Amino acid sequence: MALNFKRLETCDAELLLHWRTDPDITKHMYTDLIEPSLEKQIAWIELMQKREDYRGYMIQNAGVSVGFLCFNDIDFTHLRCSTGSYIYSRSARLQYAVTLHTYICNYVFYQLKLNKIINYVLDANEKVVKLQSLHKTRLVGHLKQHIYKNNEFLDVHIFEQLKDDWCNQKQHFSLEKIKAAFNDWDGA
Questions:
Q1: CA 4, CA 184: separation in Å to the nearest integer?
Q2: Residue 175 near residue 110, CB atoms below 8 Å
Q3: Domain locations in the chain?
């Protein structure tokens, strides 16, 4: 498996904008971009790079970007964060959707040294809702009519993953393999 994660840079803006405006991706996101442009995408990346509570990565397969991963609302006081991700091509989704969670959890619990991941998933994103259950994350809430998008209200599921629960699960990859997959693990 050649999965790796490269910290988001402005040179990724064009590809990220293409993905972010694709209907198959945006239908599972809280918002759609208003008047998207390369300049706005570059400005957004530059803004995110300055934030202490956010880290963005390009998900790569053998060095070729196939998706996007972010750690947001990073809270070093209460030791928690949220994550978001998408893998653009169907073939890459089939290949990596299940294993991506392992990389996310290990990064949060061992690199960021946090205790909890909280994820908010649109009800309409049925595959990710099922994946959360497969990964033994705990469903802790369901927000009715929480997001208004495309003239309709959407529900949101809230899931949590605790470090203790994660550590008690069978690990399919060594921590060394996970560390090596992030281009900035030691310097993040």
A1: 11
A2: yes
A3: 3-181
Which residue is listed with tokens 């927000």? 143
**pTM (predicted TM-score):** 0.91
Q: Which two tokens stand for residue 156?
A: 């949101």
Q: How far is CA 143 from CA 39, 79, 129, in A?
A: 34, 23, 14
pLDDT in tens, the chain (188 residues): 578 999 999 999 999 999 999 888 888 888 888 899 999 999 999 999 999 999 999 999 988 999 999 999 999 999 999 999 988 888 887 788 778 999 999 999 999 999 999 999 888 777 777 777 777 889 999 999 999 998 999 999 999 999 999 999 888 888 999 999 999 998 76
Residues 6 or more apart whose CB falls under 8 angstroms from that of 57 comprise: 5, 6, 7, 8, 68, 69, 70, 182
Burial of 124 (0-12, 13-18, 19+ CB in 10 A): middle
Distance of alpha carbon 128 from alpha carbon 173, whole angstroms: 21
3-181 belongs to which CATH class?
Answer: alpha beta
